[in-house]
Amino acid sequence: MRIEIICTGDEVLSGATVNTNFSFISRRLFDAGLPVHAETTVGDDRDSLLEAFRVAGERADAVIVNGGLGPTVDDLSQEVAAQAGGVGLELNEAWLERMTNHFRLRSRAMPPNNRKQAVLPVGAEVLDNPVGTACGFALTIGRARFFFTPGVPREMRRMIDEQVIPRVLARSGQPGAVLLKRFHSFGLGESRVDALLAGVESLAPEGTVKLGFRAHYPQLETKLALRGPDRATLQARLAPVEAEVRRRLGNFILAEDEETLESILLEHLRAERHTLSIVENYTCGRIAARIAALEDSASVLRRSIVAPDEQGLRDALGLAASGPSNPDSLACNLAQAAARNAGTDLALIVLVEPDTGADRTDFGGQIAIAIATPAGVIERASRLVGGREWLRLGAAEMGLDCLRRHLLGLPVDERIDFEKLASVASP
Amino acid sequence: MRIEIICTGDEVLSGATVNTNFSFISRRLFDAGLPVHAETTVGDDRDSLLEAFRVAGERADAVIVNGGLGPTVDDLSQEVAAQAGGVGLELNEAWLERMTNHFRLRSRAMPPNNRKQAVLPVGAEVLDNPVGTACGFALTIGRARFFFTPGVPREMRRMIDEQVIPRVLARSGQPGAVLLKRFHSFGLGESRVDALLAGVESLAPEGTVKLGFRAHYPQLETKLALRGPDRATLQARLAPVEAEVRRRLGNFILAEDEETLESILLEHLRAERHTLSIVENYTCGRIAARIAALEDSASVLRRSIVAPDEQGLRDALGLAASGPSNPDSLACNLAQAAARNAGTDLALIVLVEPDTGADRTDFGGQIAIAIATPAGVIERASRLVGGREWLRLGAAEMGLDCLRRHLLGLPVDERIDFEKLASVASP
Q1: Do B312 and A304 touch (CB under 8 A)?
Q2: Domain total for chain A?
Q3: Which of A95, A204, B41, B244 could make a disulfide contact with B7, Cβ separation 3.0–4.6 Å?
């Protein structure tokens, strides 16, 4: 089955907007076992759209079109779809009523040009949009079935998952349900995880589980995709594979599915009624920002301090300089002071001592992590390389992961793949 | 002149990588007066590439191909280009030598498969890549001139600007030089700037300056694009327009061209030997992070503190609770305490009191900004709406902009377009 995507809109074509809609649609189709064959972007002009629809209609089986369903004059998808399909346009009374109600519920009159959104090619099948006024639709053009979706990301995402993928799956002659299980890990490279999980798919009957990865440093996403007759069957098939992946990746799994490292952390911190302060230097406050940006973090994350160097850190935490010190003992002292000063039971300190000189691929830094707890200070030393930004990303992730490991009673110093041997600090 | 772009690579087609290369290329061409007509993405397979090259070769005048010039087996651009162009392949000895030297300078032996990067279609014109081993090239396929560029963003960007655009301009029969002047502003909406700048292009002879905008909240980019015989002529033509834009947008211009708000701030802070501390709540440390991430900021930004609420902020700065207070006087007191505690001559405080309830488009918040200086505290109150993230972005930008305005001796309380009337705080 040949699947194509057509993205429309001057904003996307001119490069003003980065086309994240396309990435989403392609990823979702891929995860459902429906890889995309080609993508075309054209602007909001009649000739380009018509040509793109005709070309795709001749060579593809299914085409997903994104954009051009809005109320303004440059939204041309319905009109050009009708022309390409050789049909007329007609008002869809049901959708017009939906829109009128949508505006009434918000105590607003529907602007007259919104009416255009309910005008569809004759014979089009409506694709429901429960979160907006743009009406999706399916229509046959040439030998392909076209699925027209809105450009607003929130509306597009829901329509792809709920309306488009089931229909494309059905057309591909494949069973109607898909299931995607995702594991987020930190510390294991893609090839290592691939080796660790060798043969895991065979735990499901007849190769129904497809294993895949998506690396976005510092995290790796491991995906298990299944297709089958219905969701319950798929969950039963997935269960042994899922359990085995969890067993093999073990402590390295940070979160699953829609969870994030920081959401998991906040959940545990709240459940155990912890309060936390965070101290950083080179990571610029990014560690604290990831927790602080979550709703309801205020009662947990009580204070975050950033200072650029040892003197600045000591001053900020009221620690006198105490002769020569190494980064590990500094981190330990800062952790205790941070918890004491802020009156929190936990304090996370992540100190980076970057290499000197220009940014380069082997630019790295020593990382000293300390977590102050009522039972004492937990420490972790490491070295990461890969350039300044890589170092910042890795150090922030490692700091948060150490805290997660502490909260879950896991070893905080389990060696990770990205790690270089930490140079031994002089005593 | 019809210009098309072809992006290649399974990573991009599958949605694993968001296609920012395309946005860059299209924007750059657009700014040079060379709008792109269509874009196609295909994977790393011979048939798809060949089809895409042939189709574009029949209908376009210039085609920019991105990706597929690497050393691995799935990098197919040279091979398929030769096939589509009906020519053979040959080793480019000069490029092979360049590569060998490249590796020798880094004290590494060239891996054997890199040799492939010097094998080009017969008759191809080399497009120089001064920052990598992938050799760009131009070749005629069908009726179009094709320009092959590497997928590595840093290498692609330089090749587009230095090698591709001048050649496409020459083919378009237009003069050979382009000039792009950019102004970054905060506080004026696109339509307001458009109105403010009405007629400004007429200050250059014969409509040679094209005015354009790129809105990316909270900033707006105003672009002046020129084409002409050479750079010196263009700069002379631009001068009166540039001066007039600067005059009309005045205090709202944060930065120009490659500068950023934070780089301008750091430059002024360093030049005047200031030291700074920053205190935030709702913006989660993002304000400080923008300055802290710049190299050489350590001597200026001495301390950054984030706490979620009034009590947390008072505790962190050692301020006793002092009966009922309003956010403005709290900001003022915190600013003085922050400068005193950290021993800095300046302190920037940005406090946000968000609305309650769920996130929504009319979710907003009161913003209280205070800057402690040796001469006293400068204050600014505002209200922004647009949802949680909009509020965070706007408050961070406003805080940094107030500091810029203070450093440059400009009014800090000039009303901005995004601002709602701040509710009057009770005394």
Answers
A1: no
A2: 3
A3: B41
Q: Which of residues 41-60 of A touch B (CB under 8 A)?
A: 41-43, 48, 52, 55
Same domain, A411 and A275: yes
A427 found inside a domain: no
Label residue B112 by pLDDT band (50, 70, 90): confident
Which CATH number belongs to the domain containing residue A82 in this structure? 3.40.980.10
Q: Which of B171, B193, B228 is the last residue of a domain?
A: B171
Regarding pTM above 0.90, the answer is: no
Which residue does chain A place closest to B37, by CA atoms?
A: A42
Coil, helix or strand for B362? coil
Flag if A306 and B315 touch (Cβ within 8 Å).
no
- Residues A249 and A209 placed together within one structural domain of the fold: yes
Residues B219 and B304 reside in one and the same domain: no
Same domain, A406 and A322: yes
Alpha-carbon gap: B182 to the closest alpha carbon of chain A (Å): 14
- Separation of alpha carbons B245 and B250, rounded Å: 8
Of B254, B228, B238, B168, nearest to B203 by C-alpha is: B238
Least confident among A299-308, B120-129, B217-226, B369-378: B217-226
Q: Any CB–CB contact under 8 A between A223 and chain B?
A: no
Instruction: Tell me the C-alpha distance between A11 and A379, whole Å.
Output: 50
Contact A52 B43 (CB under 8 A): no
Contact B16 A286 (CB under 8 A): no
Q: B354 and B283 in contact (C-beta within 8 Å)? A: no
The ipTM value here is: 0.82
Min distance B347 CA to chain A CA atoms (Å): 14
Residues A48, B37: C-beta atoms closer than 8 Å: yes
Structure tokens at A5: 């995507």
Phi, psi of A302 (to 5 degrees): -90, -25
Question: Which residues from chain B sit within 8 angstroms of residue A6, using beta carbons?
Answer: none
Is residue B242 domain-shared with residue B265, that is, in the same domain?
A: no
Segments forming the whole domain that contains residue A389: 261-420
pLDDT per residue over A260-280, tens digit each? 999 999 999 999 999 999 999
Q: How many CB pairs under 8 A join A and B?
A: 172
User: pLDDT band for position B249 (50/70/90)?
Assistant: very high
Chain B residue numbers touching A316 (CB-CB < 8 A): 303, 305, 342
The DSSP element (H or E) to which B237 belongs, if any, is helix B231-249
| Spatial CA neighbour of A278 closest among A310, A313, A315, A321 | A313
Taking the CA atoms of chain A, what radius of gyration do you get in angstroms? 27
